[in-house]
Structures are given as structure tokens and as C-alpha cells.
Design goal:
Strands 3-2-1-4-7-6-5 form a seven-stranded mixed sheet. Strands 10-20-21-11-24 form a five-stranded antiparallel sheet. It is of the alpha+beta class. Helices cover 30% and strands 14% of the residues. The chain is globular and about 80 Å long. A hairpin with a 2-residue loop joins strand 22 and strand 23.
């Protein structure tokens, strides 16, 4: 009988009544408790408690019963009508009314009822994740054939309003931004975010598109006032591809073409149903649409992982996840960045446009009619030609150059990330280790607050340099001597031979006039040297176009890292401990982090996209040039500022410590030191970092530990390849060197 009682007690505990999420936080803070204290008492992660307080997740036994006990005790002390002081012991205990469950009568008759033992993938990984200090190895993944049986919103979903719509969501998109369509036991199912699964009645791709737009209630609200709502995203698994008559994988010819043939039966079905495809055809990221009528859009984005839509370099194993888990990964990315529109690079570029739409509605004219007009702060709807120095080789503005002419620094703007290394000094060779530090989201940080051109460039001869004016400047910076520079307001003496030049990617000192972006020239002046440009291409129409883009990607990155147990307010030692093995705490969220980083770099790279075959010949335009977001000058400015930001920190560090880097690759810097941790050589006083120097932390622009190898390892690698200046920053992470340094 006691076993039966225990079972009943466990059943009661599994449904222990909890106050609403907002009240949970109120009660904790009223008693002066921190999230860490609550997490420690309940033996869960800090991020888990944060999830309970935000309503993103719900606790499960045995933590749920203990958490409910804590909140009930606090409610006795701090009733809802006051949090100023605890009530007397004689006060009646506070009671809670359980939050109302999501309405069963949802507008879609295709919503399936929840199973009795519903445990969704999102809930499992978030609620059961261990504390950072004791994170075990990742649990084995379910096989591809494993399918989650949960069929309704997970217990942690937000409280529904009377209409059955989660509070705070757009009722048009109440089922989230996307769905992963799969086939299970002969039934077509759509796995949405939040654990919701819908039955799909569609028997063909045209019918699936119709169902998505008419019944599925998928999509995402616009990110900016004059923008457009995001189209729903449908992800097709291999089983769904077979069901709808599409190939599971592409042939080699189709992979090179990036699409299936125009004569494929599914494309014919779409044509008969009067659906259209974009110019890129039916490929891994197909867009199916009908021309817009007024403000009404009819467009569905498809994603096909088995056609390599989710590049493993950026999305890891996402394409191999079961449907519910894949819906979670893509759903988190969509909610924090935007619904994917293609590769991470394409999405990064689309995010810029979504935040700064090219046009807006005008004020009503005399007849009360509104018209489309330029949206201030955007790049507009028409592309602009770059300055000749900003154009890559083969661009139409350079068509009059001799055929095999090679442009030098005086003709071509060349702002790229660092790839620099030097031989170690005798003193450095006596040290034990090489420690690499890496700048978090370096290029995103470089974009933050950066003034960039919005319109076409204007040519100016014999200009006066203006550090606030975006543009490209022809100027001689060869006179800048790194042995004596200004660091802040004071002149400092340095060993210039141990420092890379801030003006070239290879760290070589310039030999004469060359083209530079505004941040590079401004830094030369900051170091205390006069700059006299010979000519310039400047952009008088300018603004901080990338600020919103940076803010959204920063917030997405920080929120996801916090979910993984790496918070922005950790002390340096705690931060390093939290970063150790953070990906293993929730491998799916680790995929999201990787995708966010790739969105930054890829989006900036797209600003200078080169031709991709298509029979292109030098001097002819290529497809990317038709975009207003083809802006190599903006890319150059971001890279310039990122490189300068890094050099500034290196100079500050050298001036204060006498330590110099031995290798730099993009945003990774390697120092020789006796210790094994960044804390062994980064200067901290009373827990505070050197002002203007390197600082450990998760925020963009701060640094993390990239890796540690021995000095003997470094010298051995260089001897093996007979390359004294082999860039060790490329291999510092795990020490693996598979081939000679190619610079790629």
C-alpha cells in the first residue's frame, strides 16, 4: 500500500501548483534571493531558473515540488499586495490559482491532443541541463527514425488568451514562424515551435503551400514599421520529400545547378496551380509565391536539409535532427534573429533590409492617397556603383583597364582581417606556453556605432580628412612609427618590430600612398601622426545603418549563451569556467550560437559578393550587383574598424605589460606566457581589466580563451613546415595541423 501512496504523492508533486512566472520573480526578489542562490538550492542551472521565471519552461519533478514549496513559503511572507516587508507569522498563507491551460478548442481542427506522457525535446534539454561547473558529456542523440510523440504546446508555453492564442503573439502567426513537415505512420505531420504538432491534409506541394498560407497560421511579424511580415518557412524531411514526389538528394549536376530541372513534375504541378518560383528555381531554399495584390502577400519559403540547405559548417548536425528538435533549433534562431531566408549569409543580409526597409508609405496627398517613398536611413531600392578603388577586379566600372592589369595599393582599397605572425624572440622561447584569446563577435562589434555611407560616393581631390565622414582615402601612412605612439593621451615607447602594422592585413608597414577606409586613417591620427589625403571618395549621405542589425544579433547571441549557462555578468574566472564545455550542456542551442556567428560574418561577406559562374566574364555585371545591399564600401569599413579595434587593444596591452603578440588571425591573438590561462597574462586589478585593453567576457568585443599549446609545440610545427612565420593562431585551438599553412 505504501508504494501506492508514494505513487500518488509523486503524481501530486508532478502537478504542484505554481504561481504565474511574473510572481515567481517577484517573490524571489522580495526576499533578496539571487537566481544563483535558488539554482544552487534546487541543484539546477541558473538558466533553468531564468526559464521558469520567464515562462519559457516549467519545472518537473522532483524540482517542481521543491520549487513550489519555496514559492509557497515566500508567498506567506510576501503577499501579492505588498513586497515592502514580510507579514507577521500569524498571516494566512498565500494560495495560488494554477495558470489556465491553453484552450483546447483551437481554431485549427488539425491540432492533435497531447499524449499522457508528453516530454518535448525543448523541455528535456532546458529543464535537465546541469550546472556549468559539472556539465557531463552530451547524451546520445536519438536515431533519425525516432519521432517525438508530443502533439500540443509544451507545458512551458505561454498562457493562452480566450481565443487560444499565446499571450503577446500575433494571432495570424499563433503557431510560430515555421514548421518541419515529416511523415510518421503514413500521416503527414507539421512540427512547429513550442512542441505543437499539426496534421497536414495536403497531398501535393501546391496543396501544402495552400494549406500553409490558409490554415497553418505560420509566419513572423515584421521587424520594422515600413517592413513586411516574414513568410512562413516549411522544412521538408526526407520522408516528406518522398511523399510529395521530390528527390531525397540531388544529383551532382543538380547540386552544381542549385536546383532540380524545370521539367520536374512538381514544378509542373506548381505551374498548373499558378504558383511561381524565384529565379533561383526549386533548390535547397525554394521560394514559392504568387504576385502580391495590394498589401496581400502569398509566399512560402521551403528549406530542404537533405539538399544541403543547412550547411554543416554553420548549422552542425541540425539537418540530421528529428523533426521536433530541428523545429526547436530553427525556431529559436527565427525568434531571436529572423526566420531564415536562405543560408546564414543570405539571412544576415536580409536582416539588414528587414530592419531598414528601402521604402515607406508617404503622407496622404491632396486626394488622400499614399505613395511609396524613400525610407530615410535605408540604402534605398536602387543599387549604386562603388568608387573605382572600392570595386573588386572584373567590376564594370573597371572595364577600361588593360586586360591583365594588376592594381596595387594606390589603385585598390584592400581592407581585410589580420593574418600575421612573427618568429618568437629568445625570451619568448624560454616561456612554457602559447595562449590564444579570441574576440567574441568581433565583426559585429566592429559594426556597432559605425557611420557608413548610404548613397553614392563623391570624388574629392586634395581633401581635408574628416574622421566622421565615411569613405575611401588615398593617403601615405608609411611615416607612422609604432615605436612611439600615443596610447590615449600619452606618448609611449614600444618595440615596433614586434607589432604588426595596423594598416595592412599582413601587418607589413606601407611603403607609400594607399587607399584606406575612414577608420584606418582615423587611427593613424589617433596614434599621433599627421594624415594628408591626396584624394578621396566620400559619402555625404551617411548614418549608423548597422546599429539595429548589431543590436539584434548581439541580443540573440547573449540570450542563447545565457541559456547555455554563460551570462554577461560573470567574473573573469567564472566566465572561463562557464565557457568550458558550454556546447555540451545543450548541443541544439550550441548550433544556434554557431548559426548566429555565421550570420554576422556571412552577412558582411555578402556586401561584396563575387560572381558565381553563370557564364560571367570580366567587365560584365553579375547578379549581386543589382542589389542595393551590394556595398563593398560598408564591408571594408566594418573590417577596417574591427582590425583597428584589435590593434588598439594590443598597443594598450604592450604599453602596460611589455608583452607582444606572436600571431594574429582575424580575431584571434596568441601570446607567449608561462601560464595556461588568459588570466595568467591579462592584467586585472581588483577584478577590473586594463582600461582599453582585453577584457574577458561573453559580450561582443570582449575575449574568451581560444586555446593553449606549449611553446615547444609551436616551434616544432614551424620546424616541420620550415616556416618561421607560420601563423600559429590558426591551430592554437586544438593543436592539430593537417597541412601547410595556406592562408585559407
Amino acid at each position: 500500500m505504501s508504494e501506492l501512496f508514494d505513487a500518488v504523492d509523486a503524481l501530486v508533486a508532478s502537478r504542484a501548483v505554481l504561481p504565474p512566472p511574473a510572481d515567481r520573480k517577484r517573490l524571489r526578489t522580495a526576499h533578496g534571493l539571487t537566481i544563483d542562490e535558488v539554482a544552487g538550492a534546487l541543484k539546477v542551472r541558473r538558466a533553468t531558473v531564468s526559464g521558469w521565471e520567464s515562462g519559457k519552461t516549467e519545472p518537473r519533478p522532483p524540482e517542481r515540488d521543491a520549487y513550489a514549496r519555496l514559492l509557497n513559503k515566500l508567498a506567506e511572507l510576501y503577499p501579492a499586495d505588498t513586497t515592502a516587508a514580510p507579514v507577521q507569522d500569524t498571516a494566512a498563507p498565500a494560495t495560488f490559482t494554477a495558470p489556465s491551460a491553453p484552450a483546447e478548442a483551437r481554431p485549427l481542427s488539425t491540432v492533435r491532443a497531447p499524449a499522457a506522457a508528453d516530454t518535448t525535446a525543448p523541455e528535456n534539454t532546458q529543464a535537465a541541463a546541469p550546472a556549468p561547473a559539472a556539465a557531463p558529456a552530451a547524451a546520445p542523440r536519438p536515431a533519425r527514425t525516432t519521432r517525438t510523440s508530443s502533439t500540443s504546446r509544451r507545458p512551458g508555453a505561454r498562457k493562452a488568451d480566450p481565443a487560444g492564442t499565446p499571450a503577446g503573439t500575433d494571432p495570424r502567426f499563433e503557431n510560430g514562424p515555421l514548421a518541419v513537415v515529416d511523415v510518421e505512420d503514413g500521416k503527414v505531420l507539421a512540427y512547429c515551435t513550442g512542441g505543437l504538432v499539426l496534421d497536414v491534409p495536403a497531398k501535393s506541394i501546391p496543396a501544402l503551400v495552400d494549406w500553409t498560407l490558409r490554415e497553418a497560421k505560420l509566419g513572423q511579424p515584421k521587424l520594422a514599421g515600413p517592413g513586411k511580415d516574414a513568410d512562413p518557412l516549411i522544412v521538408l524531411t526526407e520522408a516528406a520529400l518522398e511523399r510529395y514526389g521530390l528527390p531525397v538528394t540531388l544529383t551532382e549536376e543538380e547540386r552544381h545547378a542549385g536546383r532540380i530541372p524545370e521539367g520536374h513534375k512538381v514544378i509542373k504541378q506548381l505551374a498548373r496551380a499558378e504558383w511561381k518560383l524565384t529565379k533561383r528555381g526549386f533548390g535547397p531554399w525554394a521560394r514559392i509565391y504568387r504576385p502580391a495584390t495590394g498589401s496581400e502577400r502569398a509566399c512560402v519559403q521551403l528549406c530542404i536539409p537533405s539538399w544541403n540547405a543547412l550547411d554543416t559548417r554553420h548549422w552542425g548536425e541540425a539537418g540530421q535532427l528529428p523533426p521536433a528538435e530541428l523545429a526547436r533549433v530553427l525556431g529559436v534562431y527565427a525568434s531571436r534573429v529572423m526566420t531564415p531566408r536562405g543560408s546564414t549569409a543570405v539571412t544576415g543580409l536580409e536582416l539588414m533590409t528587414a530592419l531598414h526597409p528601402p521604402t515607406r508609405a508617404s503622407e496622404p496627398d491632396a486626394t488622400g492617397k499614399r505613395h511609396s517613398e524613400h525610407n530615410p536611413g535605408s540604402l534605398g531600392k536602387d543599387p549604386v556603383d562603388p568608387a573605382p578603388c572600392e570595386a573588386p577586379d572584373g567590376h564594370p566600372v573597371l572595364k577600361d583597364l588593360p586586360r591583365f592589369h594588376v592594381r596595387g595599393p594606390g589603385e585598390k582599397l584592400f581592407e581585410e582581417a589580420y593574418d600575421w605572425a612573427r618568429p618568437m624572440t629568445d625570451a619568448e622561447c624560454t616561456l612554457r606556453n602559447l595562449v590564444g584569446i579570441d574576440v567574441n563577435m568581433a565583426f559585429a562589434a566592429g559594426a556597432n556605432g559605425l557611420n557608413v555611407g548610404l548613397g553614392a560616393p563623391t570624388h574629392v581631390t586634395d581633401p581635408v580628412f574628416d574622421p566622421k565622414l565615411p569613405g575611401s582615402w588615398l593617403v601615405d601612412l608609411s611615416h607612422v612609427d609604432l615605436s612611439r605612439v600615443k596610447a590615449g593621451k600619452e606618448w609611449v615607447e614600444l618595440d615596433g618590430s614586434l607589432l604588426p602594422s595596423p594598416f595592412t592585413p599582413k601587418g607589413e608597414r606601407p611603403e607609400g600612398p594607399a587607399w584606406y577606409a575612414t577608420p584606418t586613417v582615423a587611427y593613424a591620427a589617433e596614434l599621433g601622426y599627421e594624415v594628408r589625403p591626396i584624394e578621396a571618395w566620400v559619402r555625404y549621405e551617411n548614418g549608423r545603418y548597422l546599429d539595429g542589425w548589431y543590436n539584434r544579433l548581439r541580443d540573440a547571441y547573449l540570450a542563447t549563451m545565457a541559456d547555455l549557462g554563460v551570462d554577461a555578468d560573470l567574473a573573469p574566472a567564472d566566465f572561463l569556467a562557464a565557457m568550458d564545455g558550454y556546447k555540451d550542456r545543450d548541443p541544439e542551442l550550441a548550433i544556434v550560437v554557431s548559426a548566429i556567428k555565421a550570420t554576422v560574418k556571412g552577412g558582411l561577406g555578402k556586401l561584396r559578393e563575387r560572381p558565381r559562374g553563370e557564364g560571367w566574364r570580366p567587365g560584365e555585371p553579375w547578379r549581386a550587383l543589382s542589389r542595393p545591399t551590394w556595398r563593398p564600401d560598408i564591408r571594408a569599413a566594418v573590417i577596417s574598424r574591427t582590425r583597428i579595434n584589435l590593434h588598439r587593444k594590443i598597443v594598450k596591452h604592450a604599453a602596460f605589460t611589455g608583452q607582444y603578440p606572436v600571431a594574429i588571425l582575424s580575431d584571434c591573438v596568441v601570446y607567449a606566457t608561462n601560464g595556461e590561462s588568459p588570466l595568467d597574462f591579462l592584467p586585472y586589478r581588483d577584478g577590473k581589466p586594463l582600461p582599453g585593453g582585453f577584457k574577458l567576457g561573453v559580450n561582443p568585443g570582449l575575449v574568451k580563451h581560444e586555446g593553449t599549446q606549449t611553446v615547444l609545440w609551436g616551434e616544432g610545427v614551424r620546424e616541420r613546415f620550415d616556416a618561421p612565420e607560420l601563423n600559429l593562431a590558426r591551430y592554437i585551438k586544438d593543436g592539430t595541423v593537417t597541412d601547410i599553412d595556406s592562408g585559407e
